[in-house]
Design brief:
Largest sheet: 4 strands, antiparallel
Shape: globular
Order of helices and strands: HHEEEEEEEEEEEEEEEEEEEEHHHEEEE
CATH superfamily of the largest domain: Crystallins
Radius of gyration: 23 Å
Strand content: 35-45%
CATH topology of the largest domain: Gamma-B Crystallin, domain 1
Number of helices: 5
Number of domains: 4
Strand order of the largest sheet: 1-2-3-4
Helix content: 10-25%
Structural class: mainly beta
Low-confidence stretches: 1-21, 97-106, 202-208, 307-319
CATH class of the largest domain: Mainly Beta
Length: about 400
């Protein structure tokens, strides 16, 4: 027992000495003393991404990475509050400190201003980049047209910065080379890059048999909220915990999911009598979601979305699409009536302290529209391309 106590004290002392040997981060000094939950939210707002955490004695050491600055920091939490924030070497965040944010190496997402990966470009490592904070580098606002996403990453592009996490028309891009859809072409003001390891899972997991579909593009499921912790990617197919098919993701451990454009995912609390899912289930289309039923997933099913199955020629799509931009400024009741008259079906609502967002779907033209309502009037009307309820 004494030996174990000595070990804990020794490890804690060594960690403390390491922290003291590093330099404080002056621009984050105002976060010292803040509650850990509030401090984490503020770090994320300032562009830092959580990497990992560890414990020693009565303290926790957490690493965060800022992709735009290529900066790794260590945050010490004591009694539930931020006690210190210091610079750390890039390898503490699992990064190579020799790469610059402007390089075009295969480990970085690159966005181009012309179709087919041509024209002016800017490369981004993992992190969030907002035009209104001057973080897009050589990429000019509302000029992006194509993107190159390497294996091990995903990218989310939006036409507005929102509250710092992107809003309006958004789309998640899996590894590959993509020309941007009409809803985002020459409209991008927000870039978010994440390491999601499409090639497999992260973290320790049980030994698994060779399961077709594991590590393929489709959906990546995480063990923690906000796309953190251990992860496993799944291609089209059905995956049962009872058959040890969840890879590095343990049974009843799923908390969040990232779904690539063109795919849908279904998650259930049990495998069901015939291996098609049972109990409480939830389904999502392209995007990023924290699960409603946290730590309660034993069945995962990934499929190609029906909205991606129909690719209409450009001229036919133009004929079928209806204009809704003229509804901006209308009272909500009148705007809703017009949406229904034009063939749209109300499918979902998202409430924000200042804005209510309603989602509308028109199957004949495959239009998924988000309406922002402020003070009882249509404030924004955007074709967002896809949504979990647009199918």
């Amino acid at each position: 027992m004494r030996f174990k106590v000595f070990q804990v004290v020794l490890v804690t002392s060594l960690l403390a000495l390491t922290i003291l040997a590093q330099n404080p981060v002056p621009e984050l000094r105002d976060l010292i003393g803040m509650r850990a939950s509030s401090g984490q939210s503020e770090l994320e707002y300032r562009g830092y991404v959580f990497v990992k955490t560890g414990e020693g004695g009565d303290r926790k050491w957490s690493n965060y990475w800022n992709g735009s600055r290529r900066q790794c920091i260590t945050v010490v939490t004591y009694n539930g509050r931020f006690d210190s924030i210091v610079d750390s070497p890039a390898f503490d965040c699992g990064r190579d400190g020799n790469n610059s944010s402007g390089s075009t190496s295969g480990s970085i997402v690159t966005v181009y201003e012309d179709y087919d990966l041509r024209g002016n470009s800017q490369s981004f490592s993992d992190g969030r980049y907002l035009n209104n904070r001057g973080q897009l580098g050589r990429l000019r606002n509302d000029r992006a047209s194509s993107i190159d996403v390497p294996a091990g990453f995903s990218a989310r592009l939006c036409d507005s910065e929102g509250s710092g996490y992107g809003s309006g028309a958004c789309q998640v891009f899996s590894p590959g080379r993509h020309n941007l859809p009409f809803s985002l072409d020459n409209r991008v003001s927000y870039v978010e890059v994440s390491q999601v390891l499409w090639g497999g899972g992260t973290g320790p997991g049980v030994e698994t048999p060779n399961v077709p579909g594991l590590g393929k593009t489709g959906a990546t499921v995480y063990s923690d909220f906000n796309y953190r912790g251990r992860s496993q990617s799944f291609g089209p197919g059905r995956y049962l915990a009872s058959d040890r098919q969840l890879g590095s993701l343990g049974n009843d451990e799923a908390s969040s999911v990232v779904v690539t454009s063109g795919y849908r995912v279904k998650l259930c609390e049990n495998e069901g009598a015939y291996g098609h899912g049972g109990g409480r289930c939830e389904e999502y289309g392209a995007g990023r979601f924290n699960l409603r039923y946290n730590d309660d997933v034993s069945y995962i099913e990934v499929s190609r979305s029906s909205s991606a199955a129909i690719n209409l020629p450009g001229w036919i799509g133009s004929i079928l699409k209806v204009n809704v931009s003229d509804l901006i400024g209308m009272r909500m009741f009148d705007g809703d009536t017009q949406m229904r008259n034009r063939g749209f079906k109300y499918v979902d609502v998202i409430r924000d302290p200042r804005t209510t967002y309603t989602i509308w779907w028109r199957s004949t033209s495959r239009q998924c529209v988000q309406v922002g309502v402020v003070n009882g009037r249509y404030y924004t009307v955007s074709d967002i391309g896809s949504h979990p309820k647009c199918y």
